[in-house]
């Protein structure tokens, strides 16, 4: 028994409340070293009256199940009932292949005996109270999001078009508009729902100068190029009537340099009413321009990514907190927003994120807050309901496209990613194949549609809620930053028809097997670096799904169980029982 590989961290993602009446534990051990784990648990002993002695510990045992497996370690998991005392004492009873038994608690690892169990210190929890402000709404775990940049999706009302529009379908230009608007989204809700998506995720819709609107000027106004507040409310009501959800992008860690607050600071300096709203190192505020208009190495104030046009705000300032709290409150209460994607959430203090959570949950207990950042951050912040799993997307790209991360390393890295998050938080997070901030994944894949389909299928088999950027189902490949994203192609051809049929089937499969994919165990099967293939299985109750992906240049021999049901497949040669390049087989066992 490899004692150094046995690991549990109390009061963390390895020991946390699953809901108000249950507590979840996880334990990490060396792969295939331990054959069985039981958790021993109960309420801590009470002091006997007038004796100074503790009562005898009354405990129960439950079997732990393997939640994650790879070639390095296993992760065991169990959910315990919380006693009436709202406190838990627990320890782990491990059995290895040679029949050795070990008792593991907070103080030591020792040989298991019934006497040792009665005398252990155990891992002890504090009084267990669920923080409702941190709980993810149940609906968030069954979502498949369709992300839209309004200017690039559909022009439904030409009366509000900006001047000098580009012709729809032309290559995008940074300072140009295509005229997409809220009416265009409203006109195509049936199309989106028929594809199977049950959530619409919009990039910023507030008044701004750019075509992508990430540089918000006025958070209380809908950008005139998109429509009016009345049209926005009509859109949201139509989305809700279809049983769908709406999530908006918003930035809270900086303001645009054209904002009234920043302009006041520029004019009045330290005497400005808003001087303490920003992170100013020296007055007057100024910066040294560079070749790029959106970058400066020398500024007298803090700015997002050294962009002088995005001065960072002081989120520890109560006035700033109230400002953004009021904004989100306004749109949530008056327009029925279901979720908010908070940009650059890693730049924010835990106190501010808790403030937003508590403020919005008071209005709508079922509100969904998603932490969204382009920064590499493996740890989840445990404040918002979920996080945008950008690190997973990058790992998948490096394995499937760049081939710089071997399949076995991908397996290890994804297990680490899952282990660092609470299970409830992982299933409420989001995994997007494409993002407006980056080059489209089809372009990264050298316009290889079979490779794109393999990547999308792999991502849809993970625990997080999938997200598709508009036009992925049409085979759009242009655009490597928000201002240069292409407009939606509404003309169908053989290529787009093929992709739409695939996406529709993929989305339907995810919906049907969502519980096993979002909540089930994850066991890696055979993975070969030499032949570039990987496999895994997902299981929940009696439902089990097996997935095999071939990333190599040649075909591989496969043998599927005789009574399995093929759910999704590509480049599968049934007669020869082989799987071609970029082929995959997803089966229910």
Automatic annotation (TrEMBL):
One BP term from GO: carbohydrate metabolic process
SUPFAM superfamilies noted in UniProt? (Trans)glycosidases, E set domains
SMART domains in the record: Aamy
Record domain Glycosyl hydrolase family 13 catalytic: where: 147-510
Protein name in UniProt:
Neopullulanase cyclomaltodextrinase maltogenic alpha-amylase
Instruction: Specify the species.
Output: Ligilactobacillus apodemi DSM 16634 = JCM 16172
Provide the alphabetized UniProt keywords: Glycosidase, Hydrolase
Q: Which InterPro entries match?
A: GH, GH13_cat_dom, Glyco_hydro_13_lg-like_dom, Ig-like_fold, Ig_E-set, O16G_dom_2
Q: Which Gene Ontology MF annotations are present?
A: hydrolase activity, hydrolyzing O-glycosyl compounds
| Pfam families in the record | Alpha-amylase, Alpha-amylase_N
């Amino acid at each position: 028994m490899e004692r150094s590989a046995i690991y549990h961290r109390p009061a963390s993602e390895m020991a946390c409340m699953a809901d108000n009446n249950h507590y979840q534990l996880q334990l990490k051990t060396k792969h295939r070293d331990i054959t069985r784990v039981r958790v021993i648990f109960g309420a801590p002993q009470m002091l006997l009256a007038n004796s100074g002695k503790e009562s005898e510990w009354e405990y129960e045992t439950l079997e732990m199940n393997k939640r994650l497996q790879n070639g390095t370690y296993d992760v065991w998991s169990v959910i315990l009932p919380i006693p009436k005392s709202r406190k838990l004492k627990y320890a782990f009873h491990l059995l290895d292949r040679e029949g050795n038994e070990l008792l593991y608690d907070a103080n030591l690892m020792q040989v298991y005996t019934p006497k040792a169990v009665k005398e252990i210190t155990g891992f002890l929890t504090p009084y267990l109270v669920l923080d409702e402000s941190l709980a993810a709404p149940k609906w968030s775990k069954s979502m498949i999001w369709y992300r839209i940049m309004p200017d690039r999706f559909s022009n439904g009302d030409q009366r509000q078009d900006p001047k000098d529009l580009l012709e729809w379908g032309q290559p995008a230009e940074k300072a140009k508009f295509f005229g997409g608007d809220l009416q265009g989204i409203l006109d195509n809700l049936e199309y989106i729902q028929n594809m199977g998506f049950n959530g619409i995720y919009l990039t910023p819709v507030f008044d701004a100068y750019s075509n992508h609107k990430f540089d918000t000027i006025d958070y209380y106004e809908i950008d005139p190029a998109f429509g009016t507040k009345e049209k926005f409310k009509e859109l949201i009501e139509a989305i809700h009537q279809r049983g769908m959800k709406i999530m908006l992008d918003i930035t809270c860690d900086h303001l645009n340099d054209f904002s009234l607050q920043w302009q006041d600071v520029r004019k009045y300096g330290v005497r400005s009413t808003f001087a303490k709203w920003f992170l100013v190192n020296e007055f007057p505020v100024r910066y040294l321009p560079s070749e790029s208009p959106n970058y400066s190495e020398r500024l007298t104030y803090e700015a997002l990514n050294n962009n002088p046009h995005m001065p960072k705000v002081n989120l520890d300032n109560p006035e700033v907190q109230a400002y953004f709290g009021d904004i989100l409150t306004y749109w949530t209460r008056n327009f029925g927003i279901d979720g908010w994607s908070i940009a650059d959430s890693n730049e924010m203090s835990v106190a501010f994120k808790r403030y937003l959570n508590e403020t919005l949950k008071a209005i709508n207990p079922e509100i969904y807050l998603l932490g969204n950042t382009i920064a590499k951050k493996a740890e989840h912040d445990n404040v918002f309901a979920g996080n945008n799993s950008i690190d997973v997307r990058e790992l998948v790209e490096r394995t499937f496209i760049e081939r710089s991360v071997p399949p076995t390393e991908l397996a290890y890295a994804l297990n680490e990613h899952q282990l660092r998050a609470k299970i409830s938080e992982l299933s409420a997070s989001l995994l997007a194949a494409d993002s407006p901030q980056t080059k489209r994944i089809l372009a990264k894949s050298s316009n290889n549609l079979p490779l794109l389909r393999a990547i999308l299928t792999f991502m849809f088999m993970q625990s997080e809620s999938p997200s598709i950027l508009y036009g992925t189902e049409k085979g759009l490949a242009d655009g490597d930053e928000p201002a240069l994203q292409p407009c939606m192609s509404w003309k169908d051809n053989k290529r787009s028809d093929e992709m739409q049929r695939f996406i529709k089937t993929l989305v339907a499969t995810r919906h049907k097997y969502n519980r096993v994919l979002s909540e089930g165990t994850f066991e890696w099967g055979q993975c070969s670096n030499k032949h570039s293939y990987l496999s895994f299985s997902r299981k929940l109750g009696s439902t089990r799904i097996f997935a095999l992906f071939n990333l190599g240049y040649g075909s591989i021999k496969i043998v599927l169980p005789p009574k399995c049901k093929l759910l999704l497949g590509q480049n599968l040669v049934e007669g020869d029982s082989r799987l071609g390049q970029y082929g995959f087989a997803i089966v229910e066992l």
